[in-house]
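Sample intake — DNA-directed RNA polymerase III subunit RPC3
Collected from: Stentor coeruleus
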Amino acid sequence: MEELIFLIVQELYGEDPAHVAKALYIRNKSTLKQLQTFLHINDQALRNAIIILMQQLIVSFIEAPKIVYMLNEQEVLQRIRYPRYIRLINMKYGEDSCIEDLLENGCCSINQLIESAKELHRNPDSVGYILREMIHHDYMLPVDRRCELKTSSENNQKKQGKPTKKVKIENLIAPILSTALPKNKSEVSAEKEIYYRLNANKLNKEMQSELIGGFVSSKLNMNCSIIAEVMFKLGYRSVTRQEILAGLPASPKISNQILDSCLEMLEKADLIEKDTEISWKLNLHKIHNTLIAFTIEKILQGKFGGYSSRVFRILFNKGLLDEKTISELSLLPLKDTNISLNELFSSGFIYAKTVGNSQMYYGVKIEEIRDDVLKQCYKSVHNLKIKLSSEMEEVWGLAQRAGFLTSEERQTIERYNHIESRIESAILELDRTILLLTIPISF
């Protein structure tokens, strides 16, 4: 896992922050002096790296009694999800949302985002209005972690032939960092501005809403999917028919009759349950577990083939079964059933239990296999990032000579763009599984 953390941080913020993040993951907690001894980097470079990571909320600290730094592991791994966050915000507010500036800097004031937008020739009034709307709807949250570093920090990968990524942290100041870092002689006075960060939890909820909608649509129909998403967004409490109607989008139009029909279908499918005579609530436990089972089933189909995934689905739906019953329900010969059961059991996807004297029964415990699947997902993301980095090294020299390339070199660049797109799509698909396995679907 430490190598994946290193790659993610290196790609976004450079070598020194990546080494610090990796060291904190390995060591769990460290003081500034311990990090300097462990990493063998100079004091100023280490300070700058910590400032960048704290501004990104990747590193936090406690005073116990000395200042000790800790890595927020999930903040790092969440960076895999950034393309999805950008897509969601841009779909709601357009490119004037400054979402990429906010993600790149970790936290910014409204004035800083507006100034950045001016440099890109965007309308400052429009940008200001959108930012205030994002704050009003909780897409941006106030934060007291800022950065006292005044100059841009540049990724030093250029020497190695890799693209350089700048982290823009200009004119950001941090009263909290003055306590987090041992004092420097020169201190910057703090401006009384509110700084904001992206509310990743809200965006994760919206992504979960999409997952619920997609699942219900595949089981029933699009109208049921829309109603399920509305119920999820309305919160943990049970909701009435009138509340659902009020929350429905203008298009497509869902009439009273269609709503009643969909509620009946959702209840029969055990996706919602009646709380009172006039209110319902989502059966989130079943939806979440079924989504995980479907995801694992897809993984098994790619790993072992259709027979094993079919056996897994039957065991998940029916509970403990013997080999003969599994064979009958899956419509597979006993020999193929036995092979599938052995594959799944030896890989840890199912468990066996002896009932009576010698009868062997098989079952599925989703909770026990979740961690193994999650580790495999992170390992796959790590391998894909290494592959992407390797491909990037091959074309970096060509990219520097854009406009002076031969036709063969242009084809090489096009080939890289195609590979990059495929790898990034694969990483986002893996992240969908990671989201499902790491964040419980709850209100």
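Post-analysis note: Confidence is low (pLDDT under 50) at residues 145-191.
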